[in-house]
Design brief:
The chain is mainly α. The chain has eight helices and five strands. α1 packs across α3.
Length: about 200
C-alpha cells in the first residue's frame, strides 16, 4: 500500500469533516485544527473545491459569510478540474513575474509583513478561476504568495471606490458585464429579489 503524504492526510480529514457538516458554517481555526495544524490547509480546501468539485463557499461567494468562514452546500460534487499546469509553465510564470507576488509585491524568500515574519512562499494562481472557465495557459496565471492566495490580502489591499469599480465594469465587454451581474445575483440573492420587486 502506498504511503500517504502529509498533504493527502490533511485533505482526507478536511473532506470527511466537511461531509459530516454539510450546511454548517465552519471557521478557519477549526478547519486548521481538523487538518492537523498544517500550514497549507487552505490549499487543501482549494484542492477539494477545484479538483474534487466539493461545493465549498466562502465570503467571496456568499454575502452572509465572513472572511475565514466556509460552508459545504451539498454532498453532490460539481465538475472537478485536474491539475494541468506543467513544471515548465510554473517556472515560466514565476520568472516572468520576477518571483514576486502580483497582488502584494512581496518577493519569494522575503519575510512576509502579514505572516508573522515567515518567509514568503510563492504559488501559481489563476487570474480567471478554472470554475469560471479560466485555463491553465500562462497568460491566465500569475505568481501569488500564500497570504494573498488564502485571501488575507483582501484586508490589506486598497479597494477601489464605487465610481472606479463601476468604471471598470463599464469598460468590460458585455459578456464580462453579464458574468459580473450573475455573480452579484448569486452573492446577494435576497437583495436581488428585493430590487426586482421594486
Amino acid at each position: 500500500m502506498a504511503k500517504r503524504t502529509k498533504g493527502e492526510g490533511s485533505r482526507d480529514k478536511l473532506r470527511a469533516y466537511f461531509l459530516d457538516n454539510v450546511g454548517e458554517i465552519l471557521n478557519s481555526a477549526t478547519l486548521q485544527d481538523v487538518a492537523g495544524g498544517v500550514s497549507e490547509w487552505g490549499r487543501r480546501i482549494r484542492e477539494l473545491r477545484n479538483e474534487e468539485g466539493l461545493d465549498i463557499l466562502t465570503h467571496n461567494d456568499r454575502s452572509d459569510l465572513k472572511p475565514g468562514q466556509y460552508v459545504l452546500v451539498s454532498k453532490k460534487p460539481k465538475p472537478f478540474f485536474e491539475r494541468g499546469i506543467s513544471k515548465e509553465t510554473r517556472a515560466f510564470v514565476l520568472d516572468r513575474n520576477g518571483f514576486t507576488c502580483q497582488m502584494c509585491g512581496v518577493a519569494a524568500g522575503e519575510p512576509h509583513p502579514y505572516n508573522e515574519g515567515r518567509k514568503t512562499r510563492l504559488h501559481i494562481g489563476h487570474i480567471i478561476d478554472k470554475s469560471m472557465g479560466g485555463s491553465d495557459e500562462a497568460n491566465n496565471l500569475r505568481a501569488i504568495c500564500s497570504v494573498c492566495n488564502e485571501g488575507a490580502s483582501n484586508l490589506t489591499l486598497n479597494r477601489p471606490d464605487t465610481i472606479k469599480l463601476i468604471a471598470q465594469v463599464r469598460r468590460a465587454p458585455a459578456k464580462d458585464q453579464l458574468d459580473v451581474m450573475k455573480w452579484l445575483i448569486t452573492k446577494f440573492p435576497n437583495q436581488a429579489k428585493e430590487l426586482s420587486e421594486e
